[in-house]
Design goal:
Number of helices: 5
Subunit structure: Homohexamer. Dimer of a homotrimer.
Order of helices and strands: EEEEEHEEEHEEHEHEH
Catalytic activity: S-methyl-5'-thioadenosine + phosphate = 5-(methylsulfanyl)-alpha-D-ribose 1-phosphate + adenine
Distance between the termini: 26 Å
Pfam family, one: PNP_UDP_1
Shape: globular
Radius of gyration: 18 Å
Low-confidence stretches: none
GO molecular function: S-methyl-5-thioadenosine phosphorylase activity
Structural class: alpha/beta
Oligomer: single chain
Strand content: 15-25%
Protein name: S-methyl-5'-thioadenosine phosphorylase
Largest sheet: 12 strands, mixed
Mean pLDDT: 92
Helix content: 10-25%
């Protein structure tokens, strides 16, 4: 792997942010890039390589050795660094618990909606200036279509909890009764920050477990979640590569949300 600084001409137009257990993406011929941002360092050095004819930047969300818990991930630094490299499209694979018995472990879901149940996370780049982004549809429809390959489940609601604990049985039952589909700890503020940077963004959720209130038993254990993710990691990477190949080039108009707005900061 070749190392380079952000001053050298490393560029990418697509980014992949890997979730729990998804710590590398390229087999070879990747360059490692270190980028400083106004929000600190990203979770790990970014690797840049070619995938399906596209120039792709990969960043492990939790760090190269899972150093960051969901509530401590430097979300702003991660998205800022990827945009600095030129990425305007982001695929965000992640682990998720299922809130319906119809979606068992190993299912891959491309959600179309998000519910934020986090607390205390910095979730914007804009602390002033009256900037309010359009977020009714939190995921880019173009990237969702690209990720909805044969065998995936298209659509669903991802509820994002603060973590790092898993849900109580009562919370899980409540989420399911709302009609929500999946539960996860990292989908927010990542999606909102991507929209603020006018980056197309789509989540690909790998179901690792039935959440605590959906089935009888001891509840969700981290060791089982990681094991299930590893069992399906090869298939998930194949799906991400297929999504990259199917994605249109360039950001879509719907995700360019700052037209006519004077921003309080300059985007990279």
């Amino acid at each position: 792997m070749t190392a380079m600084s952000a001053r050298e001409p490393a560029r990418a137009d697509v980014a992949v942010i890997g979730g729990s257990g998804f710590y590398s993406f390229f087999d070879e011929d990747a360059a490692e890039v270190t980028i400083d941002t106004p929000y600190g360092n990203p979770s790990a050095p970014i690797t840049v390589g070619d995938v399906e004819g596209r120039r792709v930047a990969f960043l492990p969300r939790h760090g190269a050795r899972h150093e960051f818990a969901p509530h401590t991930i430097p979300y702003r630094a991660n998205l800022w660094a990827l945009r600095t490299l030129g990425a305007r499209q982001v695929f965000a694979p992640c682990a998720a618990g299922s809130l319906t018995p119809d979606l068992g472990p190993g299912s891959m879901v491309v959600p179309d909606q998000l519910v934020d149940r986090t607390s205390g996370r910095t979730q914007t780049f804009f602390d002033g200036g009256g900037v309010h982004i359009q977020f009714a549809d939190p995921y880019c429809s173009d990237l969702r279509k690209a990720a909805a390959r044969p065998g995936t489940v298209e659509g669903g609601v991802l509820v994002v909890v603060e973590g790092p604990r898993f849900s109580t049985r009562a919370e899980s039952v409540w989420f399911a009764r709302q009609g929500w589909t999946l539960v996860n700890m990292t989908g927010h503020p990542e999606a909102a920050l991507a929209r603020e940077l006018e980056m197309c963004y789509a989540t690909i959720a790998l179901v690792t477990d039935l959440d605590a209130g959906i089935e009888a038993g001891a509840g969700v254990r981290a060791v089982d979640v990681f094991a299930e993710f590893q069992r399906n990691l090869g298939s998930l990477k194949t799906l991400v590569r297929s999504a990259i190949a199917a994605a249109p080039e360039g950001p879509c108009e719907a995700c360019r949300v700052h037209e006519g707005v004077t921003l309080p900061i300059e985007l990279p």
